[in-house]
C-alpha cells in the first residue's frame, strides 16, 4: 500500500512538472525562448522608411479560426497591385515585430497584411503553437484574402516561429492563389529547436522530457510537438521557397537552414548573411536582402 501511494505521488509530481513546463513554453505572454537580443544598428534610412510606412492608412481585418478571433492589418500598395504578402511573426511577439519587413514589401510594390497570431497581440487564444496551430490560422487568412479578392496572388513570409508557420502551411492544400513562400530564421521542428536550447542553455539532452511535455500539449492545446515538423511539411510542398538565415543567429542555428533546403522537390533559393543575427539580416544587409526578395518574387509570381 505504501509503495502504491509513493508511486501515485511520484506520478502526480511528474504530471505537475510537465504541466508547468508546458505552460512555461506555450502559455500566452511567456517568452521561454527569449533572451537579450544583441543590439543591431540598422542600415541608414530603414528607421525613417519604417516610420513613414506606419503612418499609412490601414484596414483592420478579423477572422475566426480555432475558435479564436484573430486580427490583421491590411495596407494597400502605393500603386495598384494584384499581390498581397502576409507577414507572420514569431514567438511571444506580435505583428509590430515585422514592421521593418512590412515596409520593405510595401516599398517593393505589394499589398501587405500583417497578422497577430493566436495568443499574441490583439488576437484571442491561450496557447502558442510553435507554428502548428498558427499554420491552421494562416490557411484561414489565405482563404479570407481570396474571399475578398478572388484573383489576388498571395505570398507567405514568416520569421522565426513565423517561418516555421509558413513552412508548415506550405505542405497543406492551399488556394491556388498562394504562389510563393519566404522563410527567415526557421527551425526544422519544434522538438529540434527545444532540444537545441536545452543543450545550449542547460547542457542537458531533453528528448524524453519533451515527449512528456508533448503529451500535455496534445491534451491542453490540441497538438503534439511532432506535428510541428517543417521537414515533413516541405516534403509535401510544391511552392517556390526562399530560405533566408543569418550565420550569427543565436536563437535558431544556421545549419537548420541547410537541413531544410535539403528536403523536398520544389524551386528553392537560399540567402545567407555573414553578420546576420536572428531575423535581423535585413537590418544590416538591406540592399542585398531586398534585391534577393525582389528577384525571387519577380521570377515566381
TrEMBL record:
InterPro entries: AB_hydrolase_fold, DNA-binding_regulatory, Hydrolase_4. The keyword DNA-binding does not apply. Keywords: Hydrolase, Membrane, Transmembrane, Transmembrane helix. Residues 81-182 form the Serine aminopeptidase S33 domain. Coiled coil: none annotated. The chain crosses the membrane at residues 6-25. This is Alpha/beta hydrolase.
Amino acid at each position: 500500500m505504501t509503495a502504491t501511494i509513493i508511486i501515485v505521488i511520484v506520478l502526480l509530481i511528474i504530471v505537475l512538472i510537465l504541466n508547468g513546463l508546458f505552460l512555461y513554453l506555450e502559455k500566452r505572454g511567456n517568452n521561454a525562448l527569449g533572451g537579450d537580443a544583441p543590439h543591431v544598428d540598422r542600415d541608414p534610412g530603414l528607421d525613417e522608411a519604417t516610420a513613414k510606412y506606419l503612418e499609412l492608412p490601414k484596414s483592420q481585418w478579423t477572422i475566426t479560426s480555432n475558435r479564436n478571433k484573430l486580427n490583421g492589418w491590411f495596407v494597400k500598395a502605393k500603386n495598384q497591385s494584384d499581390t498581397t504578402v502576409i507577414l507572420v511573426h514569431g514567438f511571444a511577439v506580435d505583428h509590430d515585430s515585422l514592421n521593418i519587413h512590412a515596409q520593405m514589401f510595401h516599398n517593393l510594390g505589394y499589398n501587405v497584411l500583417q497578422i497577430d497570431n493566436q495568443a499574441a497581440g490583439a488576437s484571442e487564444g491561450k496557447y502558442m503553437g510553435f507554428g502548428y496551430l498558427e499554420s491552421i490560422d494562416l490557411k484561414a487568412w489565405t482563404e479570407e484574402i481570396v474571399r475578398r479578392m478572388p484573383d489576388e496572388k498571395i505570398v507567405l513570409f514568416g520569421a522565426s516561429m513565423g517561418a516555421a508557420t509558413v513552412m508548415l502551411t506550405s505542405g497543406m492544400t492551399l488556394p491556388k492563389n498562394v504562389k510563393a513562400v519566404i522563410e527567415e530564421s526557421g527551425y526544422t521542428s519544434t522538438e529540434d529547436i527545444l532540444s537545441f536550447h536545452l543543450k545550449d542553455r542547460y547542457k542537458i539532452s531533453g528528448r524524453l522530457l519533451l515527449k512528456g511535455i508533448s503529451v500535455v500539449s496534445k491534451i491542453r492545446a490540441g497538438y503534439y510537438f511532432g506535428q510541428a515538423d517543417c521537414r515533413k511539411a516541405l516534403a509535401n510542398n510544391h511552392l517556390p521557397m526562399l530560405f533566408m538565415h543569418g550565420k550569427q543567429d543565436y536563437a535558431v542555428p544556421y545549419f537548420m537552414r541547410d537541413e531544410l533546403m535539403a528536403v523536398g522537390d520544389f524551386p528553392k533559393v537560399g540567402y545567407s548573411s555573414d553578420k546576420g543575427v536572428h531575423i535581423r539580416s535585413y537590418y544590416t544587409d538591406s540592399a542585398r536582402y531586398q534585391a534577393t526578395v525582389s528577384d525571387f518574387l519577380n521570377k515566381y509570381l
